[in-house]
Amino acid sequence: MAEIVIVGGGAGGLELAIRLARKLRNRPADRVTLVDRKMNHVWKPLFHEVAAGTRGISGDQLSYLSLAGLHGFRFRTGEILSIDRENQTVVISARSGPAGESIPERTLAYDHLVLALGSEPRTFDIPGIRENCFFLDTLDQAHRFQDAFFEHCLRLDTKESAEKKQLNISVIGGGATGVELVAELSHAIGHLTRYGFDAFDPEKNVSICLVESAARILPQLSEGLSLKAMARLEDLGVDVRTSCRVQEVLPGGDVKTDNDGVVASEMTAWVAGIGAPGALSHLFPSSYLSMGFLSIRETLQLADDDRIWALGDCARFPGPTPDRPLPPKAQVASQQAEHLAKEMYRVLASGASARPFEYKDYGSLINLGTHSTIGQMMGNLLGSRNVDGWLARRAYKFLYRRHQFILHGVFRGSLFILSELLRERVHPRLKLH
To answer: What is the layout of strands, in order, in the sheet containing 363-367?
Structure first.
């Protein structure tokens, strides 16, 4: 009997648990256990829509217990506290409820341990970031941003003095999340007048600024696409500032930049850097890189332990060149989960050594609102091709659809998609509470 424990129920960890449990149905002695601190799964690339209020997330939250029952793996809630590599056990935290501790600390034995813990924000020790910024790394953080945004808009709509009617929003980080967030916020503000927000002019009384330290936004795309995205954002009224380094975020939200510049801001979001959860630096000090991620081999195993694997945002897989590891994005985690499910099954069935993971880059897509998506798609038939408009929008939506099909199967996944389309027809365009 083999015990496979997967810690982290994000896109990579959950897809691995489902794929591996399916493969092990003909090996009932082998068991898959998924561990996560939350009870529900939400696809992380949706968080910028939640933060802007353009997506109600209730229909996208999936119960881990329900998925475990559907696919045949176990689920345990908790955070990893310690690991005994000699005895191959992990300790996960207790769970507290309204009446106190509902589940005590538990110890789980493993034959193979997979770390799929995702990422957390890195602030690079810039003063004021943690104290004065919003983050979008968890669903709770996205909800906090949306609540604050809506409250600011309510106050703005009720102020009597026109001179005081101003809301400044700053987003620090010109990667995919930052660009998608400012675009979504711009569209959300434009929709407010449909719901009775008529005492202020969104174009005059609300400003959005995107701050990026590099020379251009979206460095993962070609320079041409980066410039096109920047032009689209400026058409939406976003103030894009490149080559602008943040020195400090002040208590009121204002952003102090190099050359003594100050970006006025009542709401400031930090989406400029991520790293592996800090707990991993204590649990695996020999594998924790100075850049803030776990170091893994090409087989997705730790260098000093064949029974511990890592995938997704918490690990850095060697890229085409040593100074360019694979980026932390959903398609990397999904491909690693698919590969690891096959390899772990092969290792369990035959005792063979794991084979290296090979990444296939299918491009990057950036959503700039309801009707605008740009990016680059790659394939064996077409090579590398820039895409824009309807085709890009369909391809962007397909990324989430594929995730839904993996989680539910084609039939149930199709029903989930249909229910989502029906919700869009009857619910308000914005979350108004």
So the answer is: 363-367, 373-379, 383-388
Other Cβ atoms less than 10 A from the Cβ of 51: the count is 31
**Any bridge partners for residue 207, and if so which?**
168
Which of 9, 81, 12 lies closest to 341, judged by CA? 12
Pair of tokens at residue 24: 């092990």
What is the C-alpha to C-alpha distance for residues 278 and 365, in angstroms, rounded to an integer?
29
pLDDT of 221-259, one tens digit each? Answer: 889 989 999 999 999 999 999 999 999 999 999 999 997
Rounded to the nearest angstrom, the gap between the alpha carbon of residue 173 and the centroid of all alpha carbons in its chain is 14
DSSP string, 322-344: TTBPPPS-HHHHHHHHHHHHHHH
Higher pLDDT, 430 or 353: 353
- Measured between alpha carbons, how far is 210 from 216 in angstroms, rounded to an integer? 11
Amino acid at 371: H
Sheet of 3-7, strand order? 74-77, 31-36, 3-7, 112-115, 305-310, 301-302
Using the 8-state DSSP alphabet, how is residue 236 labeled?
T
Output the CA–CA distances (angstroms, integers) from residue 343 to 15, 16, 256, 346, 408, in the order listed. 14, 11, 49, 5, 22
Max CA-CA distance within the chain?
75
CA distance 305 to 387: 42
371-395 pLDDT per residue, tens? 578 888 765 544 567 777 767 777 8
